[in-house]
Design goal:
This protein is mainly α and 96 residues long. The chain has one domain. The protein has two helices and two strands. A two-stranded antiparallel ribbon has the order 1-2. Strand 1 and strand 2 form a beta hairpin. The chain is elongated and about 80 Å long.
């Protein structure tokens, strides 16, 4: 009988099929945790970007002549640039 290659005394005498199942379970759990952390980081990045772009008209008022450009136009331009650049990155990364 082959022994399971592990440092744990309790798992040392398990059959190979059980060892494979334990290894597969560990890999799946590690991938799930990694995916969760990546999605959490993406959510925080999107939240930061949205709040930053919504704050931009207050930090950078744009005046053309006597009139100020509306806040929605400034934020919309930033969101549009964000969308275009994101699409370009995805295109060059081979996602499309």
């Amino acid at each position: 009988m082959l022994k399971c290659q592990t440092r744990s005394y309790l798992l040392a005498n398990l059959p190979p099929a059980t060892c494979d199942l334990l290894l597969l379970t560990r890999i799946v759990l590690e991938e799930l945790i990694a995916n969760f952390v990546e999605l959490l980081a993406l959510a925080f990045a999107v939240y930061h970007s949205v709040t930053w772009f919504n704050l931009t008209p207050k930090a950078l008022p744009l005046q053309l002549g006597e009139e100020f450009v509306p806040d929605a136009v400034i934020s919309g331009a930033h969101f549009g640039a964000w969308a275009v650049l994101s699409a370009a990155v995805l295109y060059f990364a081979g996602a499309f």
